[in-house]
Amino acid sequence: LRIAVLVSGSGSNLQSIIDAVENHTLTSQIVSVISNKEDAFGLERAKTHHIPAYFINPKEEGYDEKLLVRLQEDQVDLVVLAGYLKIVDANLIKAYRGRIINIHPSLLPKFGGKGYYGIRVHEAVLAAGESESGATVHFVDEGVDTGKTILQKTVPVYETDTPQLLQQRVLHEVEHKILVEAIKKLEEA
Ligand code: GRF
């Protein structure tokens, strides 16, 4: 599959896909990495691995149009939102329905939707006294974190957990694994 990865931050999820492509766990290729943040480290990761990296400025006119044109020009088969913190435009959803996936650091539908992103997800999980947490890879539809689940994996929550400790456990033990596994499933579909 020709994959475009959309990032807004450090891109550790992107890195897990890059590594899986390079060690041939995945047969796909990442044709572009796109960010709405000029300083997203994910763009650096792309450049290090000689993957075309694009910053599209959300403050300028036509952000959504530019993004869609970029994907179409690159003949992208699968769009992966990996730590991408912007709501996806309805035209993009329509153009890529069933071919756009997102990873969210909770067991959706719990702790998903507007306002639940980054460390706030894990703060809410701890505040709710959950005994387990995890992450979900799902298809993206018009809602926020509401599309059909592809893969989900749990981790235990410990009494001694802080939001940071839980975030790191979910990120390293779950997110980086299930995102690659989900793409592998789609390769075989
Ligand atoms: C991760 O928790 C991811 O689940 C969320 O954004 C966070 C940062 O991801 N969507 P990354 O390190 O930028 O891939």
TrEMBL record:
Residues 2-183 form the Formyl transferase N-terminal domain. N(1)-(5-phospho-beta-D-ribosyl)glycinamide binds at G11, S12, N13. It is an enzyme of class 2 (transferase). The keyword Transferase applies. One of its GO terms (molecular function) is phosphoribosylglycinamide formyltransferase activity. It catalyses: N(1)-(5-phospho-beta-D-ribosyl)glycinamide + (6R)-10-formyltetrahydrofolate = N(2)-formyl-N(1)-(5-phospho-beta-D-ribosyl)glycinamide + (6S)-5,6,7,8-tetrahydrofolate + H(+). Keywords: Purine biosynthesis, Transferase. GO terms for cellular component: cytosol. GO terms for biological process: 'de novo' IMP biosynthetic process. (6R)-10-formyltetrahydrofolate binds at L85, K86, I87, V88, N102. The record marks D145 as: Raises pKa of active site His. InterPro entries: Formyl_transf_N, Formyl_transf_N_sf, GART, GART_AS. Its EC number is 2.1.2.2. The active site is at H104. It comes from the Bacteria. Pathway: Purine metabolism; IMP biosynthesis via de novo pathway; N(2)-formyl-N(1)-(5-phospho-D-ribosyl)glycinamide from N(1)-(5-phospho-D-ribosyl)glycinamide (10-formyl THF route): step 1/1. Pfam families: Formyl_trans_N (PF00551). The keyword Transferase applies. Belongs to the GART family. Catalyzes the transfer of a formyl group from 10-formyltetrahydrofolate to 5-phospho-ribosyl-glycinamide (GAR), producing 5-phospho-ribosyl-N-formylglycinamide (FGAR) and tetrahydrofolate. This is Phosphoribosylglycinamide formyltransferase. It comes from Holtiella tumoricola.
